[in-house]
Amino acid sequence: MTLHAPLRLFAALTLAGASWFAQAADLTVAYQTTVDPAKVAQVNGDYEKASKASIDWRKFDSGADVITAVASGDVQIGYLGSSPLAAAATRKLPVETFLIATQIGAAEALVAREGAGINSPQDLIGKKIAVPFVSTGHYSLLAALKQWNIDPAKVQILNLAPPAIIAAWKRGDIDATYVWDPALGVAKENGKVLITSGELAEKGAPTFDAWIVRKDFAAKHPEIVKAFAKVTLDAYADYRKDPQAWLANQSNVDKLVKLSGAKATDIPALLQGNVFPLAADQIAALGAPTTQAITDTATFLKEQGKVEAVLPDYAPYVSAKFIAN
């Protein structure tokens, strides 16, 4: 059957409208350069397939930048550490933590430059230490100084984003840094690790990375958030089933290198340096444990003058409802 011109135009407009509605759930996701198994799913387009949404993936250098983008509404789902998360919740940003991305171990560390005269923690006094402010690295640095009874005021703490840390390290402008890859790998080339976030966790200052979602987006598109969580957890399960076999697949390593900037030779140690919680662990964690961890982090940040107050309850900023049993 041949349509007359007006009918053809109406049909075209109807199809265009249907297409617009299909694309209305498109979202922007803020990711960082951390090394985790879900980066493979990201490269493979698994998130798009599972959610049936078009995703604009944007790379960010720090959680503070992610928070700014989420607050503005430019980003609907974002990856950030427990310290910027605590700061965001304290500011009452309308977000929910729907997934613990990783419990940080050796993937973040304090590294001192060879030749800077730093042979023990006390040698940090008077030295220049670079770290992205309000990041998990910043929280861990302050926690480490507290462990060593070093007044932060006696150390020159510089607020630099990871790319700037790499440049400053190569120029010899800084003596130490608390950071993650790829900057961590650069620093370790001619530096000495003084302490890792995993070691600090054992001393009572744990840090973690998380996925957050804007509450307005989650209310409108819970199925997308659930699909996002499932793809991530499936990737974790695939890795944890047999880490050695997973790493033996060069394609997996190449995809991590592509999105993280880490060296292929460092990938195994970086993966082993973190814990990637599975679904059952997530359901247990996304409640009182995470709420308490955020409260403890906010309390520490207030002691350091990084936030003005601590909320009486952080439970509204954590939810396990998007995790499938």
Automatic annotation (TrEMBL):
UniProtKB keywords: Signal
| Coiled coil among keywords | no
Q: Which residues form the Solute-binding protein family 3/N-terminal domain?
A: 26-243
The primary location reported for this protein is periplasm
GO BP terms, alphabetized: alkanesulfonate transmembrane transport
Q: Which Pfam families match?
A: NMT1
Compartment(s) where it occurs, according to its Swiss-Prot or TrEMBL record: Periplasm
Which N-terminal stretch is annotated as signal sequence?
Answer: 1-24
GO cellular component terms, alphabetically, are: periplasmic space
Q: Which family does it belong to?
A: Belongs to the bacterial solute-binding protein SsuA/TauA family.
Q: Which NCBIfam families match?
A: taurine_ABC_bnd
What name goes with this protein?
Taurine ABC transporter substrate-binding protein
